[in-house]
Specification:
The protein is α+β, with helices and mostly antiparallel strands. It contains 12 helices and 11 strands. The radius of gyration is 27 Å and the shape is elongated. The relative contact order is 0.07.
């Protein structure tokens, strides 16, 4: 861990020039005292880092010093920098590791490509925090300590104990065999096996976790994408209401935000260009609420009980506002 931090410290000084101890501490997420100890360790190891006193002082490297990291061309580095600009790392608690990796990617480039790639990456924005309607995307919070234990168990192939708070149930401990981690729309999930049955756990509901020394009972190789598709299909086929709905194209995203899932979408053969969707909701009440938000910009085509419920609700509203005050 300290070796990685020392490399990150050197890369920060190479790429940004002179930096104060508090600034370095903020970037590395450690204390100022730790930064000072690391500076001493680098000097003792022969790295030419020196201190400049005064109001505009700080730590810097002697000109010309660089680490040797090769093998990346400009487009490869740009791809990594762009991918690193997304927010998926927040779900799995890898934010600081990603920042360190990005510094190494930049340092791996030839001098004449370094600033060009960094500037180009700033022209790409992946998954911003708000959409065009200024709705903020909220990333679920996951305990850093618990996330570290989960990651280690997944990668090492060890059993895992999690203190999990399922919906409408008190938290309790469970021992599982972890398969892998998935993030969808900034929500993280742990795919696991428990007592021989597939289980999917929301990471934000894991209150604590402990990696166990026993090996997990799981296959040596796994197609995580296929496993996720299978679990999604099982989830949507159990205790959910499928709804055939037509919606105006400009309100499609609003429907997606309220539905559990949308299985199919195709342009309907109408002059208005409406879309026909097969959406899934938790139950009839959920579907009625979601479609009511869209007003006349959407129409439930099936099932009939949902159409009847919406029709009765619209009639009740019309009757209420049809009489004088």
């Amino acid at each position: 861990m300290r070796a990685d931090r020392l490399v990150s410290l050197v890369l920060l000084l190479r790429q940004r020039g002179r930096m104060t101890a508090p600034a370095l501490a903020g970037e590395l997420e450690v204390s100022t005292r730790t930064v000072l100890r690391d500076i001493e360790a680098l000097s003792a190891a022969g790295v030419p880092v020196y201190a400049e006193r005064g109001r505009h002082g700080g730590f810097a490297l002697l000109p010309g010093f660089r680490t040797e990291l090769t093998g990346l061309n400009r487009d490869e580095a740009l791809a990594l920098l762009t991918a690193g600009s997304g927010r998926g790392e927040q779900v799995f608690g890898l934010g600081s590791a990603l920042a360190s990796a990005m510094r190494k990617v930049v340092d791996a480039l030839p001098e004449d490509h370094r600033s060009t790639a960094s500037d180009a990456a700033r022209r790409f924005l992946v998954e911003p925090e708000a959409d065009l309607l200024s709705r903020r995307t909220v990333t679920e919070e996951v305990s850093g300590t618990a996330m570290g234990e989960i990651r280690r168990a997944v990668l090492a192939g060890h059993k895992l104990r999690i203190h999990y708070a399922a919906t409408d149930q008190p938290p309790r401990w469970r021992t599982v065999d972890p398969i892998g981690l998935v993030t969808v729309r900034d929500r993280g999930y742990l795919l696991a096996v428990r007592a021989g049955a597939d289980r999917t756990y929301r990471l934000s509901r894991v209150l604590a976790a402990e990696e166990l020394p026993e090996p997990a009972e799981r296959p040596g190789r796994v197609d995580l994408d296929e496993a996720w598709r299978e679990r999604c299909a099982r989830f949507l086929s159990t205790d959910h209401l499928p709804v055939l709905v037509r919606v105006r194209p400009e309100r499609r995203e609003d429907l997606l935000a309220t539905a559990v899932a949308v299985r199919a979408a195709e342009a309907e053969a109408e002059a208005e260009g409406w879309l026909r969707l097969e959406a899934t909701f938790q139950d009839l009440r959920h579907a009625e609420w979601a479609l009511w938000q869209l007003g006349t910009d959407a129409e439930a085509l099936a099932p009939e009980p949902l159409r009847a419920s919406l029709r009765d609700r619209a009639a009740a509203v019309a009757a209420r506002y049809g009489r004088p005050v």
